[in-house]
Amino acid sequence: METLIKVYYVILGIILSCNSPPGCLAQESICRTGWVYFDSSCYFFYTAHHVTWKHATMLCQTRNTYLVAIETAAENNFIHTHAKRLGGGYWLGGSDEFVEGQWEWASIGKPFEYTNWYPGAPDNQLHHQDCLMTKGIFHNGWWDDVDCNQVGKFICEEK
């Protein structure tokens, strides 16, 4: 009976410390207030501001963070889940502004390794869609190339 009680308290301790499944390693305490933890990074979904891609990049930099760089399917699923819940389009840190067709995470200077393009994208419609956005309405967290002067919400990331 004593062993059963000890097991109960161990399990209770794990449950009480676990508010961010899966994995149940609660790490929100390492993030700033209002930020969300996922896989070694903290994210903030700016929903009050609708700004251009360059303005979003600058706003993240003023907070010593960068416009989100999605490097895995798991990270994309995390971003999509939150974007869908909050609604609207969100700027991501990707761009092919410097060399057309060579997409990179401008925020961290790395070419894309993982992608999740909307079918038919990137299409560079009207020859000036050089910035990356995900929209909560897209199934599967698809990405789209859009005009950098369009306005949208944005996501800052801090590692």
UniProtKB/TrEMBL annotation:
Entry's Gene Ontology molecular function annotations: carbohydrate binding
Keyword Disulfide bond: yes
Keywords: Disulfide bond, Lectin, Signal
SUPFAM superfamilies listed in its UniProt record: C-type lectin-like (SSF56436)
PROSITE patterns: C_TYPE_LECTIN_1, C_TYPE_LECTIN_2, PROKAR_LIPOPROTEIN
Domain of life: Eukaryota
First and last residue of the signal peptide: 1-26
Domain C-type lectin: 38-157
The UniProt record lists the keyword Disulfide bond: yes
SMART domains recorded: CLECT
Name the UniProt record assigns to this protein: C-type lectin superfamily 17 member A
Origin organism lineage: Eukaryota, Metazoa, Spiralia, Lophotrochozoa, Mollusca
